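Action item from last week, closing it out:
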Amino acid sequence: MKVAIVGATGMVGTEIIAVLEAYNLPVDTYYFVASERSAGKPIQFKDETYTIIGLSDAVEKKPDIAIFSAGGATSFEWAPKFEAVGTTVIDNSSAFRMDEDKCLVVPEINADLLKSTDKIIANPNCSTIQLVMVLAPLHKKYGVKRVVVSTYQSISGSGMKAMRQLENEKNGVKGEMAYPYPIEGNCLPHCDSFTENGYTKEEMKLTNETKKIIDPSINVTATAVRVPVSGGHSEAVNIEFESDFDLADVRKILHEMQGVTLKDNIDTNTYPMPLYAKGKDDVFVGRIRRDESQANTLNLWIVADNLRKGAATNAVQIAAYLIDKKLVG
């Protein structure tokens, strides 16, 4: 079993390597792949030193799985080249998510869709993953009709340039700006670029990807906001169901959902926070309460580490499923 990590030196690539070290998959050979300027440099993995290789060399190695985290342009160009040599690509970018011929996968929800013939598999957007992890089990019981989600997203979701801007501002250092406004002491209702309908791409990802993963009949509207937090996305979610619900039953359903941790006790100030979720693989949910302004409607609060379950962990879980079900190799 041979696995390549494409974009190994980037923010998500580094996290993928950390998750792989923890998961200990039955892999014989790893290839760490990056741009040509990084090729030849050393990289550490499980107390061993590997040499970074370029994309052309990686294709020649014909890995069984290639986990991509190098941006949409790289995925568009190189994923088909890996596919052509028999590699199964798990892609973290938005390149293939809404392609009708590509599976958009959160393993706890829809890994059973995967077949050996699926050679390019899309990893959903980070904010979508944590949302659908909570929506999916509730939809099975009550039927989700409409979702209103407001996100409070870590600046790490914008990459290293934004992270450096935040650190510079904290330390009073002038430097390169990832955003047209300060991040420190501010909230930016501007995640990704704006589209013709006035929503940002991030907001439309939440809408379109949720429909594709769970049910196209679910209506989703979103407002996505960057906040000066270094890691972890939070979401305030209002869910209207087709039928009424019992709060105790809702908590039981979420408690039993694989990959979800319930933190919901206001008597002890127990609720999800980015500070608690950092470095963890689960999605955390709390502040569960009935919307008293409308029938069959629930409010809750969801938090997850956007670099872990929102990206790296989900991709590695897909790889683990493919290997376990003998869909690769």
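Closing note: Residues 126-142 form the longest helix (17 residues).
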